[in-house]
Design a protein that fits this description.
Helix content is about 30%, strand content about 15%. It has about 325 residues and is an alpha/beta fold. A hairpin with a 5-residue loop joins strand 2 and strand 3. Zinc ion binds near residues 1, 132, 153 and 308.
């Protein structure tokens, strides 16, 4: 993903932050009803397991950098498909080809898990599974063409969603869920070759899916993208495009996170706009979608310290942050009726 705060003039985006028990026929009054007598369905929210999420992150990283076209990328795609198939009702692998910044056509795979297929009311959850071919934020320029592990930048969001898939298999939420692992998110031009007019080479898997969803006339009430959700002591301010396209979802998710006691993570501050998978889901597919993405909260919209370097590896993954994000999103979707 790419921070466009410094490339595009920022226009002001405004955030639009944006019954009693049933009466019985006999002599029992509403005052006497206890909460257990009210006919509200009991909602069980399965307990998110951070160890398991961490294992799913590590599993991806252990294949090696998941750079499109590489053997590691191929092996990891098979694992993602097979693992997700053990949890979801069905899995679709959407093969596509996209022109990358070098001018070549690169094959990609979006991996999609479907839960409660029959439900009309659906939520889309997504993350990118590819890792960047360039460590172009390394100080040493000789390392710039080295692929990165992408433990945070890619694998962390997928790990959290795979753990959620495991839990949804055991205890279904009441609505339909689609989990999409997008490919070719991080194949944008290396630092130094970027220009304001060349933004389209990021989030290629999401661009493809947004134009060609896996179901004809696909719709979801909203979407949640997870990116860089394994950062130690992460803060998640409101990313700019999310606040513009889906302020009500930002509000819902941040309130839930804060209610769970994670106000240190889900901070009420505003960040700049990030070109990431959610942008195209909003703009092309028309589904209001937010990006939960670790950024500094000083308003600089800086990514985490090890972003696009060789130190974006398992040493810098925090189970606590995976847990905070996983528990929050689990509550959001299970409490959605
Ligand atoms: Zn990246």
């Amino acid at each position: 993903m790419k921070n466009i705060q410094f490339l595009v003039l920022i226009t002001a985006l405004i955030i639009i932050s944006g019954c009693g028990g049933d009466k019985k026929a006999d002599n029992q009054t509403p005052e006497k009803l206890t909460s257990s007598e009210k006919k509200e369905p009991k909602i069980t929210i399965p307990e998110f397991n951070a160890d398991s999420a961490y294992y799913f992150v590590k599993k991806q990283v252990d294949f090696g950098p998941r750079v499109p076209g590489s053997e590691a990328h191929n092996h990891c795609s098979n694992w993602l498909r097979d693992k997700l198939s053990t949890y979801a009702d069905s899995v679709i692998v959407q093969n596509f080809s996209a022109k990358v910044h070098t001018g070549e056509n690169m094959p990609g795979k979006n991996i999609i898990g479907i839960f409660n297929r029959e439900k009309k009311k659906r939520i889309l959850l997504c993350a990118h599974w590819d890792s960047r071919p360039y460590a172009d934020q390394e100080k040493d320029a000789s390392l710039h063409n080295t692929p990165i592990d992408g433990a945070n930048d890619g694998a962390s969001g997928v790990g959290v969603l795979m753990e959620m898939a495991r839990l949804m298999h055991r205890e279904r939420p009441s609505l339909g869920i689609d989990i999409i692992f997008f490919d070719l998110e991080d194949y944008g031009e290396p630092q130094g070759e970027q220009s304001p007019g060349s933004n389209n080479f990021w989030a290629l898997g999401s661009q493809h899916w947004s134009r060609n969803p896996h179901v004809f006339n696909y719709s979801a009430i909203y979407g949640i993208l997870l990116d860089m959700v394994g950062v130690k002591n992460a803060t998640f301010p409101y990313e700019g495009f999310s606040a513009y396209y889906a302020p009500h979802i930002i509000d819902k998710v941040w309130r839930q996170g804060q209610n769970l006691g994670y106000g240190k993570y889900f901070v009420n501050s505003r960040a700049g706009r990030i070109i990431d998978d959610h942008l195209y889901i909003n703009q092309i597919a028309g589904i209001p979608t937010i990006d939960i993405i670790a950024l500094d909260q000083q308003g600089n919209s800086q990514f985490f310290e090890h972003w696009h370097t060789l130190r974006d590896n398992m040493d810098n993954i925090s189970q606590k942050t995976l847990d905070v994000v996983g528990k929050t999103v689990m509550h959001v979707i299970y409490l959605e009726s």
